[in-house]
Amino acid sequence: MDSSDIGTAYALGYASHLVTDLIDPIFIPEEPVAFLMWPILTDYHHISGPGDLLALVRLTPYVVGQTIVTLLAVALWFGDGKPDTFTE
After folding, report:
1. Kindly report the CA angle at 43 between 39 and 45, in degrees rounded to 5?
2. DSSP code of residue 11
3. What is the distance between the alpha carbons of residues 51 and 55, in angstroms, rounded to a whole number?
4. pLDDT at 87
5. What distances in angstroms separate CA 43 from CA 17, 24, 39, 48, 59, one per listed residue?
6. Full residue range of the structural domain in which residue 43 is found
7. In 2-83, which ranges are continuous DSSP H helix?
8. Which phi and psi angles does 31 have, rounded to 5°?
9. Backbone dihedral region of 29: left (phi > 0), alpha (psi from -120 to 50 degrees) or beta?
10. What total number of domains does the chain contain?
11. What are 24-78's pLDDT values in tens digits?
12. What is the pTM of this model?
């Protein structure tokens, strides 16, 4: 794996992360999309610490679905022997 492969993987990962971040405003209409400009724009939200963030968590179908997807991904990673993509 050369440096251009790593750069391409990083760019694809970053772009796909921004696209998937747009899912939140679809399910939570009051969520501003200005968070995509962080750290350029920092005064866009009312969360000032972990307590504020945890206070927002509700067991909605969205949260349950995200949790299931995350747990399945971790289980798949463990089931595959926790592969490290940077060792050859």
Report:
1. 105
2. H
3. 6
4. 58
5. 21, 18, 9, 10, 27
6. 3-79
7. 3-21, 23-27, 50-55, 61-79
8. -75, 120
9. alpha
10. 1
11. 777 777 666 766 666 565 555 566 777 776 776 778 887 788 889 999 999 998 8
12. 0.44
The answer to whether 44 touches 32, Cβ cutoff 8 Å, is yes
Q: Is residue 33 part of a domain?
A: yes
Tell me how far apart the alpha carbons of residues 23 and 68 are, in angstroms, rounded to a whole number. 16
pLDDT at 58 (0 to 100)? 76
**Residue 86 domain-assigned?**
no
Q: Encoding tokens for residue 1?
A: 């794996």
Q: What is the pLDDT of residue 44?
A: 54
Find all residues with CB under 8 Å of 54, minimum gap 6, and list them. Answer: none
Give the total residue count for the chain: 88
